[in-house]
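Re: the 302-residue chain
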Amino acid sequence: MAPARSNPPVLPTAFDRAADERTVDGLVDALRADAATRVLVLHGDAAPLGADDALQFFAPDDVADGGEWAFLGRDGDGTAVLTSVFARDAAAPVEPIGGWGALRAVGGGLAPGESALFVEALSLGRWLLDAPFCPACGAHTEQRQAGWARHCPSCGREHFPRTDPAVIVAVASAQQPSRLLLGSNAMWGANRFSCFAGFAEAGESLESTVAREVYEEAGVALRDIRYSGSQAWPYPRSLMLGFHAIAADDDAARPDGDEIVDVRWFTASQIGEALAGEGELLLPGPASISRRLIKEWHASAR
């Protein structure tokens, strides 16, 4: 049985990116002068939290100087939302009620609209901080389109935020449909397992990427590769495209010994315990599309 589709961990909402407004001259400056504007401040990859663990927004005048500003869009009642982004090593630009929370840690517990906004701000903000110079001639670029583009005054090139396509796949057993193959990365602690993932190479289809990555990391050839859904993931600038697939030969599974140090077949009952926070197996957190793929498989395997 094919895994049932579930809602992605970061959902589209009534929030409007209002991309047509980005060409308005002086938009960000005008909105910074409006006390009604809401600002989502980022400090490294963390956002401020309120008392109830929701995101805390600030008025423009409440935010310290020194950040990179951009227009995110308008919320359901038409209020403009900006982001002001600060490097991790900068002084904290605001004092949030509930402290700071990284997307990986708190994204899965936020309301869908806030998760989507956090992802948008972090994806754009990382580019604003990390790519101030023209990659063609090295000149310092000028922000355009309310933070969504950079213009090089030296060579005239226009630059935009980069997104890298990456695949992630849940691999089920052909011989025993109630088993799922997961891998443990060399950088993780003991008993932490996840789906297999990797970046698409130049000239490669997504399905070919899925097959190549799993064969390289786990030694398993695949069949019945099926697309499930996607998730923007700004670590550093990925668009994760989720798949389900079936292993051609369960016994071929073995770790590459470099990136992946362990691969194991887990039963549906073991996965169910881990999803419930029980047992020794540690799965990805709720903010990750990997957990969504595992949950989809588990729902169909029981």
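The two ends are 10 Å apart (CA to CA).
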